[in-house]
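Supplementary Methods. Inverse-folding protocol.

Structures were first reduced to a C-alpha cell string of length 452. This string, shown here, constituted the complete conditioning input.
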C-alpha cells in the first residue's frame, strides 16, 4: 500500500499551478511520421499512458501511445533510455505505483518521454526498437481500481430528467451546494472492447406490476473518467489549493445504465443494480499535464443559482478549472455493420460547460476526510449540454421521441448487438488537438437464467 501524502509532499503540491512547457509546443514533431499526421489522436503533445500486453504474453506492461505505435516503458528503461523513480515505477504491471508517487512523477516521466520521441532525438533508433504497432498491443485496465465514485455534474442532464419527476423542482435540493455522487462498483469496470452482457433485474411493467427478467431499457451515459494520484491520510481533507495535484489524468467512461431496473430501485437509496452491471473505460489515460493547454474558466452559474461554496472555490479554479473537450457518441448497429456503413452519431457535447470542475470533485470527495487512493476512479456523470444534439444518454434523447438512424432503423433503448462508441478531442486556440482514443463496447444478450 503506498504511503499517504506527507506534509512535505502537500507543500510541494500547493505551489503555483502547473503551466504549459516545452512538451506542449505546437511546433514539436516526432521522428514517427504517424504522430505528425493531421487529426492524429496521439501526437507528441499528448503522450497518454496505458497498460497493455505484448503478442503471446499475458503479463501487462505500461506504455505510451505515440501515433500508431506504443512505446514500451519497461523496454525503454531496460535499454537505458529512461532513468529515475518515475521510470522505475512505470515498469510495474499497471499504473498504480506511478500514481502513488503523485502527479509530479508523471510530469517528470512526460518530459523524459517527450525528449526521447521528438524529432532529432539522439537515441531515436533505440527508442524505435522499444515500440510496437498499436494494433499488436492488447489493452488492459490502466490499473487496479480501488474505488469508483460516479458524480452528476451536468445541470442540463439533471434538470431534463428531474423534470419528469417534478417539473417545478427538477434539480435535487443539494445540486447547487455540492457535486452529487454515489459509490459505484469498482469490480465491474472493464476496458474498452469487452462486451456488456444485458443484465437481469426487477422492473415495473405497463400494468404497474413488477416482474423479473432481462433489462428492457439498456442505456449508455457519456462521461469523463478522472483518475487520481497520491493519497491523503484518513481524516485529512484535500483543499482546493491542492486538489489539482491529485488529478493524474483523464479518459472516457460509459456508465451503462439499466433504466428500468434503476427506476424501480432509486426511491430508497439511489443507484445500485441498475448501474453495477458494467462500466467501460477507454484504455489510455491522457495525463493532467497533457491537458494544461486546454484549461478553461469554470462555467458561470446561471442567474438565480447559489454562489459556489467557499471551500469549493478558488481563483485558479475560476480561471482555469474547466477543460475544453469535444465529446461524441456514435452507435453501430448490426445492420449498419453488415452494410459496411459508418456508425451514426447520436451526441456531440462539450465538457467545458459543466456545472462542477474536476478539482471541485476531488475537494468535495475528501471534504469529510475520506482518504482518496492512487488509482481511484471518478466518473464525471453524464456530460450533457444545453442543446438537443448534446444530450449524452438515450434517456434524454428519447424525450424527443425514438431515434431514427441514417439507414431508417429506429431505437428507443439499446438492442443486442448494438455497439456504442465514445470519442473525444481536447482543443484550444493555438494548441495541437489531442485525442483520447475510443471507448467502445457491444451489447451481448442476457444469459439464460440458471434453472430456467
Amino acid at each position: 500500500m503506498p504511503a499517504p501524502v506527507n506534509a512535505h509532499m502537500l507543500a510541494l503540491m500547493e505551489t503555483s499551478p502547473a503551466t504549459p512547457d516545452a512538451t506542449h509546443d505546437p511546433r514539436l514533431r516526432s521522428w514517427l511520421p504517424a504522430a505528425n499526421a493531421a487529426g492524429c489522436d496521439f501526437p507528441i503533445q499528448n503522450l497518454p499512458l496505458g497498460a497493455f500486453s505484448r503478442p503471446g504474453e499475458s503479463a501487462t506492461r505500461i506504455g505510451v501511445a505515440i501515433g500508431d505505435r506504443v512505446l514500451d516503458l519497461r523496454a525503454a528503461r531496460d535499454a537505458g533510455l529512461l532513468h529515475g523513480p518515475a521510470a522505475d515505477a512505470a515498469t510495474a504491471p499497471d499504473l498504480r505505483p506511478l500514481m502513488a508517487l503523485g502527479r509530479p512523477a508523471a510530469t517528470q516521466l512526460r518530459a523524459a518521454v517527450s525528449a526521447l520521441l521528438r524529432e532529432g532525438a539522439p537515441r531515436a533508433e533505440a527508442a524505435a526498437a522499444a515500440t510496437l504497432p498499436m494494433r499488436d498491443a492488447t489493452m488492459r485496465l490502466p490499473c487496479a481500481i480501488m474505488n469508483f465514485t460516479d458524480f452528476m455534474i451536468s445541470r442540463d442532464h439533471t434538470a431534463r430528467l428531474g423534470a419528469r419527476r417534478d417539473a417545478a423542482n427538477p434539480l435535487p435540493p443539494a445540486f447547487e451546494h455540492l457535486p452529487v455522487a454515489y459509490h459505484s462498483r469498482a469490480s465491474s469496470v472493464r476496458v474498452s472492447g469487452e462486451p456488456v452482457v444485458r443484465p437481469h433485474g426487477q422492473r415495473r411493467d405497463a400494468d404497474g406490476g413488477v416482474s423479473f427478467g432481462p433489462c428492457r431499457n439498456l442505456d449508455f451515459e457519456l462521461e469523463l473518467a478522472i483518475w487520481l494520484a497520491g493519497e491523503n491520510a484518513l481524516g485529512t481533507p484535500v483543499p482546493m489549493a491542492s486538489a489539482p495535484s491529485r488529478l493524474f489524468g483523464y479518459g472516457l467512461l460509459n456508465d451503462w445504465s439499466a433504466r428500468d431496473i434503476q427506476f424501480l430501485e432509486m426511491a430508497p437509496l439511489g443507484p445500485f443494480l441498475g448501474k453495477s452491471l458494467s462500466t467501460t473505460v477507454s484504455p489510455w489515460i491522457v495525463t493532467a499535464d497533457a491537458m494544461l493547454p486546454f484549461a478553461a474558466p469554470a462555467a458561470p452559474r446561471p442567474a438565480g443559482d447559489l454562489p459556489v461554496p467557499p471551500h469549493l472555490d478558488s481563483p485558479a479554479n475560476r480561471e482555469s478549472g474547466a477543460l475544453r473537450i469535444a465529446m461524441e457518441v456514435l452507435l453501430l448497429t448490426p445492420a449498419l455493420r453488415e452494410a459496411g456503413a459508418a456508425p451514426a452519431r447520436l451526441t456531440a457535447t462539450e465538457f467545458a460547460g459543466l456545472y462542477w470542475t474536476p478539482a471541485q470533485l476531488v475537494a468535495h470527495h475528501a471534504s469529510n476526510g475520506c482518504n482518496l487512493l492512487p488509482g481511484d476512479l471518478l466518473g464525471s456523470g453524464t456530460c450533457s449540454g444545453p442543446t438537443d444534439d448534446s444530450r449524452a444518454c438515450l434517456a434524454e434523447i428519447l424525450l424527443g421521441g425514438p431515434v431514427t438512424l441514417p439507414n431508417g432503423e429506429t431505437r428507443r433503448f439499446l438492442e443486442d448487438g448494438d455497439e456504442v462508441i465514445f470519442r473525444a478531442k481536447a482543443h484550444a486556440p493555438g494548441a495541437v488537438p489531442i485525442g483520447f482514443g475510443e471507448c467502445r463496447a457491444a451489447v451481448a444478450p442476457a444469459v439464460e437464467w440458471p434453472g430456467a
